[in-house]
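Cross-posted from the bioinformatics board.
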Amino acid sequence: MKKYWKIITNEFQRHLAYRANIVSYSFGHLFEIISQIVIWTVIFQGTSMIKGYTYPEMMTYVIIGWFILFATSNYGFEERIAKDIHQGTLSNMIVKPMSYVRYIIAVSMGRVVIALITVAVIETVLIFLLRNKIIINLDPATLLLMLFMLLVAFFIKLLFSILIGLIAFWIIEISGTYFSLNIFSKFMSGAYFPMNLLPAVFVNISLFFPFIYTFFIPLQLYLKKITLIEGLRGLGVELLWLFLLYLLIKLVWHFGLKKYEAAGV
Amino acid sequence: MKLIAAKIIRIYRIWLMQLYSNIMRRMAYPGNFYLMAIGSLFQMFLSIAFVNIIFSFINNLAGWSYHQALLVVASYMLIEGFMWGTCAYLNGLSKNIQEGTLDGLLVKPIDSQFFVSVWQSDPEDWMRVITAIVLFTIAIKGLDFSQDKFILNLFLYLFLLINSYFIIYSITLVIRSITFWTTEGDGLWKILETLTRLSQYPTDIFYHSIARFIFTAILPLAFISTVPAKILINGPDIKLILASTFLAIIFFIASRKFFHYGLKHYSSASS
């Protein structure tokens, strides 16, 4: 465990060198929610309710949703894994007394810290500025359950990225795969807009994928549109998906290594 | 005059060759190319879906009807598609600076800015242009135009879109040129990307006077898709046309100067 902790701290320190870049990234995304806030404000000038959402609920969806999106994000691990496989640098990892997948998880955890701190600061300022326009839910049980859901969501997204990256054992160029799947997963999670603004069939389909449990369901819990029991059920489904993804990665890794040619060695 | 014509033809040929080589590069992995194209198409579909969702609850967005708003979205998609399809938002510039491979492009006997700009393009993003044209046609069909007015308006619209292209290109060049000093400049690019994406909505939604000033004077988002759409719908407005042309020229000259200034600070990591 100590070695993974070292990887986490190393990665954190390495990313401190690029803090300006990370802060710029976070600010870049801030403009995205500003546009969302402006658009929904304009829309709600003509109506008081949209498919069960009031103006404060929609603002909360956008603002808290922004935090959830970043708190559960990992940054481009598909490409990194693909590079390791194609350039043969994976060989260095295989001979070390540690699991490559766990190594990637540790790197991701080290990397996310600075982004998380930046986003938390921006989010606090946003909540303070818009405190009269959003719903503040301080129910401890809800917040605790949300915290667990977000933690599992982070790992689901990470394992999904790792799984896509491992496809590189079989195909050379994976950018198209992860580009398309990332858009699809973001849509299915409800991050573009609330899923229930679309016809019910979209929500029903999205329940068969893990993504909706990483964004939409925790937000519904926060907005009290689902009960704690339903939230717990969501957490259960999330854990099930996490387990399934882990098994799938094990399987892909097992067969992938047989295909691995250790280029450059 | 002959010399200028020869120069333009030469630049055009190089651009075509670069485009061809980028298509070859992408088509080396056809599956990946099609997945990229599908991804771009899906992204476009989501933007259109969002407009449809909005208009299923309201009749107009800050004074813009459904088809008028579609026209703004189509205009933005056209510019976005051309930017990705012709110069990939100058992705190649940052990449070459970071990898220290810019030297190879600078020594070529051709204008450095031009070659660096067209060095990378994403051919799969021409899908965005095709989608935009389809969307544009749908929007136009929904709007009531008289034939004679439409042709003049369309001509002006296309002229303004060229200005929009140069405005976006120039802002991108400035942001990408900052990489000469910082090496890691992707974060700044993210800010630019999200800001320019705001122009897919009519800028009239920014009803606050400060926001309006920022998005018309400082970062002229209004001139990217809202103004061209306005001219196509309402007809010529000399003030707006002149302002758009003036901005495009000023932005282009300023960005070119900034690029060359940045070039002096290029330290070539690999040399």
